[in-house]
Amino acid sequence: MRTLRMYPSSINERYLDEVADCLRAGGIIIYPTDTLYAVGCDALNNGAIERLCRIKGVNPQKQTLSVVCDGISMASEYARIDNEAFRILRRNLPGAFTFILPAATSLPKVFKGRKEVGIRVPDNQIAMAIAARLGHPILSSSLKVDDEVPEFDAQELALAFEGQAELLIDDGGDGESLSGGMPLPSTVVDLTDSRSPEIIREGKGELQ
């Protein structure tokens, strides 16, 4: 696995191109977010999605899949966002949230027949820059390995996922996940009925 050192305050454009090219080719990446490190692939590449789900040991037909976008505008192409949902997203994003929204028909066939999609716009310049350079969302899942492999330690993650992912983006400790204390996952909010949002997992984000 190739490791790229990239800093949120000074993103390497050449590395960013390499990451986007890897994703377009069906590759798997490990990258920092505003919570835990995440494993991701091109959200429009069915083969890559199936591969990522095998790595995570999840059934894509039974589990809500989440995508990382560079902003609400990109998210609106892949989820149905009504006026009230838009107001909630605008107040809270970018931020440490996964919002469950009605899925749009523009998602690939692995999403067909699914009514929901998780939307993430993390408050992390690297994650948003990757999605922007790719031009569409990253299918993403937080990394929870085991008690022996901290999900905020890039070197340990590189060893744990050797042979499974092509690239690891190491933020050099500048990421939010290394800011002290045990890292928290995103707060998950069900917005399928935007008039009565429901927090279904408490995490780092505090809903406004």
UniProtKB/TrEMBL annotation:
InterPro entries named among the record's database cross-references: DHBP_synth_RibB-like_a/b_dom, Sua5-like_dom, SUA5_domain
Domain of life of the native organism: Bacteria
Domain YrdC-like: 13-205
Any GO MF annotation of the entry: double-stranded RNA binding
Entry-linked NCBIfam families: L-threonylcarbamoyladenylate synthase
Name of protein: Threonylcarbamoyl-AMP synthase
